Amino acid sequence: QVQLVESGGGLVQAGGSLRLSCAASGRTFSPYAMGWFRQAPGKERELVAAITCSVGSTGYADSVKGRSTVSKDNARKMVYLQMNSLKFEDTGVYYCAASRRPPSMAPDRYDSWGQGNQVTVSS
Predict the structure, then answer these.
(1) 98 pLDDT higher than 90
(2) Beta pairing, strands 78-83 & 68-73
């Protein structure tokens, strides 16, 4: 079984920073890529950032590019999302996801999901 658990979310003021963590476990856990998604109230789930587990190539949504960094620690089975200069629009439930396919922006390409972690940005 594969399990993903997010942590690090919470309330932060606009302009501040936040670091989300995703802990992975499971005997068969060997994804091609890991992704961070978020879902705001009334909106569809969207990709924030993704990273390949071998090479470490990264990709970001235009809305967060330049102020967010996704990283990983394969030995510890951890994935991180550092977000700086947070905006109100960054508010939402953030999900960690794993995919056995190459990085994709589509949620349905990911096989395993965490329970979600709330991030609220206040002004």
Answers:
(1) yes
(2) antiparallel
